[in-house]
């Protein structure tokens, strides 16, 4: 696959995140209008609501784009997903017969605010990065040994959908219970060990049925697309609360996603295998396709007042041990119904070296080894006013599939109103 | 408070679960119609959709009952909740001027199928019963000692909303990964240790704001009502998966609720205090009201083919250590946004004696001490074809506030389709 040319000139730059090969799906608004679905092409956004109303896009009897999220399309399933992608490719490709009709429906990205691209039904977070699991074991328990089930189960836990927000949304530092190891009683107040987790989010497009398990290949076909995902984490709250039933308030105050859903179709050429299995997986977790993707990832931090961000870490989604399809298959293995709009966090993505670690907990080794920003400031964890950004790009020959930044700024904790 | 008389004669029986004092909210359908909201009064259901269409109920500019769940009313908040209760009390009370107009809107309960009374937004399950926590510690870890945080935090974890079903829905035995202690590898197949958990479910009526903690009193006022809740659990799946991130597939295949939402208003006279605090709670968990309710609870089991169910256990909701208001306050303490339709499971309710235990794990002491049913059969856990039922009643002077049975029958596990 090489760069597919568009008549939208900015989309033809080899480094631009939104070429015709990408066509990611978002929700935008301009000064005078309500949020509506849009497709990114170069520096422009195609207004899908008007495109549908005008008849340029007419895939189904009922409208898909009269709501400000992409769930209605997702519910239609893979055949309609493919038909839409083919139609958009035709409308936006170089030499398109309908260029003049489409041109008037383009909105400059600079004029647009971006919103949540989907209505999140439920949010599940996994723990599928081996290096991250080993690092957390070494930091918290003094041993990098994996939990006994880790090589057999794509371990996950249910998170909170209500706190998933789009990039650009400020996050208030959470309050919570914490307890110092030598304290007799816990105390309550703002988290002092606020962290990020660099993850990918897989978006479930079609549903499974309550009581009915699915195969890995069926799961793979159900995944509509991917976003970058920052699973903000309060390590001190999490440390005190998580035994015996897992993370709760330490993970419930915010989860940021990038604004554009990059479809599975756009990523197809970037499929990458999971690493060699250290223990053979049970047959229900076997699939026929490479389930990871070669996506370069980066974490950046910008303190309040600094004029640019410091790059903290660079890694790749293909570092994960379990794929999203394996995770989704396991998620439904007990008969759990999976639905349109379910969001699956991959788990923190860390490579083998510190330069590839995907959380501050790992980068500063639990604050014991603070790192230095380009401004000269040091950090163990996040301070109020810091902006954290995730970036992701899949690099093709002469083109880039980008996700758009996943950013969030930390504001001070709120108290009771 | 004594029995409030209705012109619906069956509602005036001291033992009837649905007197005028109760007025619980459900969703029903009859042979010829779509599901719609209804209010139980004696052996009848008041059709709220037609009551609203006909103008008998007119609380808001926009309709509340054109959808088959109670979320639209819940969103309106406590003033409208109180107004509706007052209006229903007037319409259904003895001597009501509009009796003739209301009478034609009553449907015999025997002609109705009951459906989910709410659209569940997110489901959270807590672990707030001290006796249950001690029993599980004794069974699983050989010690009844509570986890270090248990007396300080109303411990909870996020569950799966998509598998919450109404009473009467059959539940397929889940498949899952399990591993015997002496086995080298895990295996995959139907759960062999299928269990129930006797719980109450609290339904969140109004929303909190992302980033904003709430007080216990604010939380109490946000709770719209309560249902009985059976948190079906696969102990063998749970035992292998739950470290380190908590229950996942062992709890994701089904959660049953009773069909009628008993409002907080109907339960007001049955408030009961939480037991003495063994450690003082942090100030954010202090509220001004008694947060539990005096509700008698019972667990019954009926094997396939038996003509009646065996009572396994009787206890009371007031046995809990934490109230739903405390749980909801804690849930929002880190800034987690709580929403209309969120469902909070209380945690398993067990009293001090075996006759009060709220799970089969406890009743059979992990299967080591099977119990005998009235049919002469013994059980450690649930077998295919067994129906499990929860019952709940608050007993007033001359009247009863009932919940309606929370039942589910276990069907064999499904395999891949």
Automatic annotation (TrEMBL), chains A, B:
Which UniProt keyword terms apply here? Calcium, Hydrolase, Magnesium, Metal-binding, Phenylalanine catabolism, Tyrosine catabolism
Domain Fumarylacetoacetase N-terminal stretches = 21-117
Q: What positions does the entry give for Ca(2+) binding? A: 125, 197, 199, 231
Which EC class is this protein assigned? hydrolase
List, alphabetically, the InterPro entries matched. Fumarylacetoacetase, Fumarylacetoacetase-like_C, Fumarylacetoacetase_C_sf, Fumarylacetoacetase_N, Fumarylacetoacetase_N_sf
* Source species of the chain: Parasedimentitalea psychrophila
Q: In which pathway does it act?
A: Amino-acid degradation; L-phenylalanine degradation; acetoacetate and fumarate from L-phenylalanine: step 6/6
Q: Where does Mg(2+) bind?
A: 231, 251, 255
Recorded E.C. number(s)?
3.7.1.2
Active-site residue numbers: 132 (proton acceptor)
Q: What is this protein called?
A: fumarylacetoacetase
Q: What cofactor does this protein call for? A: Ca(2+); Mg(2+)
> Matching Pfam families, A to Z?
FAA_hydrolase (PF01557), FAA_hydrolase_N (PF09298)
- Which GO BP terms apply? homogentisate catabolic process; L-phenylalanine catabolic process; L-tyrosine catabolic process
Q: Which residues bind substrate?
A: 127, 141, 238, 242, 348
Residues in Fumarylacetoacetase-like C-terminal domain copies: 124-392
| An MF annotation (GO) of this entry | fumarylacetoacetase activity
């Amino acid at each position: 696959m090489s760069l597919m040319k568009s008549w939208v000139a900015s989309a033809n730059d080899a480094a631009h995140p939104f070429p015709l090969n990408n066509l990611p799906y978002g929700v935008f608004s301009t000064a005078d209008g309500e949020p509506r679905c849009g497709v990114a092409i170069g520096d422009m956004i195609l207004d899908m609501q008007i495109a549908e109303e005008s008849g340029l896009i007419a895939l189904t009897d009922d409208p898909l784009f009269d709501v400000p999220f992409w769930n209605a399309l997702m519910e239609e399933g893979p055949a309609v997903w493919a038909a839409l992608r083919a139609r958009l490719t035709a409308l936006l490709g170089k030499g398109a017969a309908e260029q003049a009709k489409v041109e008037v429906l383009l909105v400059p990205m600079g004029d647009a605010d971006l919103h949540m691209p989907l209505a999140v039904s439920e949010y599940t977070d996994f723990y599928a990065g081996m290096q991250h699991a080993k690092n957390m074991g070494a930091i918290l328990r003094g041993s990098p040994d994996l939990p006994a089930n880790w090589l057999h189960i794509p371990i996950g836990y249910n998170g909170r959908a209500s706190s998933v927000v789009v990039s650009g949304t400020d996050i208030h530092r959470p309050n919570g219970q914490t307890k110092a190891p030598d304290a007799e009683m816990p105390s309550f107040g703002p988290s002092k060990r606020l962290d990020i987790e660099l993850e990918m989010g897989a978006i479930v497009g079609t549903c499974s049925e309550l009581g009915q398990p699915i195969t890995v290949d069926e799961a793979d076909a159900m995944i509509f697309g991917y976003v970058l995902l920052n699973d903000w984490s309060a390590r001190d709250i999490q440390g005190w609360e998580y035994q015996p039933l897992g993370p709760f308030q330490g993970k419930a105050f915010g989860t940021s996603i990038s604004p554009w859903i990059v479809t599975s179709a756009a990523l197809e050429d970037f499929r990458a295998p999971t690493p060699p299995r250290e223990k053979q997986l049970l047959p229900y977790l076997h699939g026929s396709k490479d389930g990871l993707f070669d996506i370069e990832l980066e974490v950046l931090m910008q303190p309040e007042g600094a004029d640019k961000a410091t790059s903290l870490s660079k890694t790749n989604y293909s570092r994960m041990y379990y794929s999203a399809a394996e995770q989704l298959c396991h998620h439904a293995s007990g008969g759990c119904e999976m639905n349109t709009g379910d969001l699956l966090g991959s788990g923190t993505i860390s490579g083998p070296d510190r330069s590839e670690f995907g959380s501050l907990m790992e980068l500063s080794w639990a604050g014991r080894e603070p790192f230095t920003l380009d401004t000269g400031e040091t950090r163990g964890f996040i301070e109020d006013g810091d902006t954290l950004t995730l970036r992701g790009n899949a690099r093709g020959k002469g083109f880039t599939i980008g996700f758009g930044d996943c950013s969030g700024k930390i504001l001070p904790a709120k108290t009771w109103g």
